[in-house]
Design a protein that fits this description.
With 81 residues, this protein is mostly beta strands. It has strands at 2-11, 20-25, 36-39, 48-51, 57-61, 66-70, 74-80.
Length: 81
């Protein structure tokens, strides 16, 4: 599991409800795949689940330990913690 911080850079929807989420993921972003992560819930419940649409573009900035990726509707940064 990777400890990560997902930051929404731009989106044409508000499905995440927050611009930043700290949690865990099993796989790192990769073109052609969806991205899935879990985090503590915003309100009631046991778990917050984030699942993106298919990743269209992805790059890794080694110096900053972060991924930049774009889906059909959004752009994100994923920081490795």
């Amino acid at each position: 599991m990777y400890e990560v911080r997902l930051v929404k850079i731009q989106s044409n929807h508000n499905n995440l409800r927050t611009n930043e989420i700290v949690g865990k993921c099993m796989e790192l972003p990769e073109v052609g795949k969806t991205f899935l992560m879990t985090a503590p819930p915003l309100e009631e419940g046991n778990l917050r689940i984030v699942l993106t649409t298919e990743i269209k573009e992805c790059s890794f900035l080694k110096e900053e330990s972060k991924y930049l990726f774009q889906t059909q509707n959004s752009k994100y940064e994923l920081h490795l913690l």
